[in-house]
Amino acid sequence: xxxxxxxxxxxxxxxxxxxxxxxxxxxxxxxxxxxxxxxxxxxxxxxxxxxxxxxxxxxxxxxxxxxxxxxxxxxxxxxxxxxxxxxxxxxxxxxxxxxxxxxxxxxxxxxxxxxxxxxxxxxxxxxxxxxxxxxxxxxxxxxxxxxxxxxxxxxxxxxxxxxxxxxxxxxxxxxxxxxxxxxxxxxxxxxx
Length: 192
What we know:
Helices cover 60% and strands 0% of the residues. It is mainly α. The radius of gyration is 16 Å and the shape is globular.
């Protein structure tokens, strides 16, 4: 299983640049956690990169991620990857409960990376000097990043066994080196 193959699959299925950037952000966070936890970086990165690859074609539950899982299996992706992706959908929790560290890691990083992205986009300096305190403050505002489920962010960190503020800062640090690719070098308000 190579990242290049996963990247090719993602580009075959996803045209929306924002969705691609989201999956790249989750990939960065997952790779960093794999390194920290002594897990297989390639597997964790591929799970992060592909977790929403079928969303454009199949946005409705339960088609996403069930249809994507069929594609992954047909292309020979390991079941550990398929299962992790299936487990990130709350509506499939009875069939695919999050039990492994990998599965819990994906769930913990997914919504949070969206929240971090939103917080970076409203700052003049983007993610450059973003802190967990700033993200957590924004998280309290119900009107901010309405598509991000705050309960999922909190539950994800708790189930993964990490302190929320530390988790937020860890994911910021994982995403920061990729700021240019993620379009987070400066906020939207400063974009010409």
